[in-house]
Amino acid sequence: DSVLVHGAALNAIRSYWDKLRREFTELDPYRTGYLQSDELDDILTQHCPSVNQEDLDMLQAWNR
Q1: How sure is the predictor about 1, in pLDDT bands with cuts at 50, 70 and 90?
Q2: Is the pLDDT of residue 10 over 70?
Q3: Contact 5/54 with Cβ under 8 angstroms?
Q4: Terminal alpha carbon distance of the chain
Q5: Which of 48, 60, 52 is nearest to 5 (CA)?
Q6: Cα(58)–Cα(27) distance, rounded to whole angstroms?
Q7: Exposed e or buried b for every residue in 5-18, given b needs 16+ CB within 10 A?
Q8: Which distant-in-sequence residues (6+ apart) come within 8 Å of 18 by Cβ?
Q9: pTM for this structure?
Q10: What is the DSSP letter of 34?
């Protein structure tokens, strides 16, 4: 079941990738390649409504 949830989130991220990339670039003007976790969460929830807290937690876990 969680595989389907995360698959849906991944598809949403892919669908909105151009918008997300623009937002990431605006938040990272020096192109360091890093964002704060709360910035990432805000961008994803704003542009990808199907991304839920479980998905965000999973992304955070990958970063550790």
Answers
A1: very low
A2: yes
A3: yes
A4: 24
A5: 52
A6: 22
A7: ebeebeebbeebee
A8: none
A9: 0.71
A10: -
The pLDDT tens digits for 18-59 are 999 999 999 888 889 888 889 989 999 998 888 889 888 888
What whole-number distance in Å separates Cα of residue 1 and Cα of residue 25?
Answer: 33
Contact 34, 15 (CB under 8 A): no
The one-letter amino acid at 62? W
Look at residues 13, 39, 12, 19 and name the one whose alpha carbon lies nearest to residue 28.
Answer: 39
Q: What is the DSSP string of 1-64?
A: -HHHHHHHHHHHHHHTHHHHHHHHHHH-TT--S---HHHHHHHHHHH-TT--HHHHHHHHHHT-
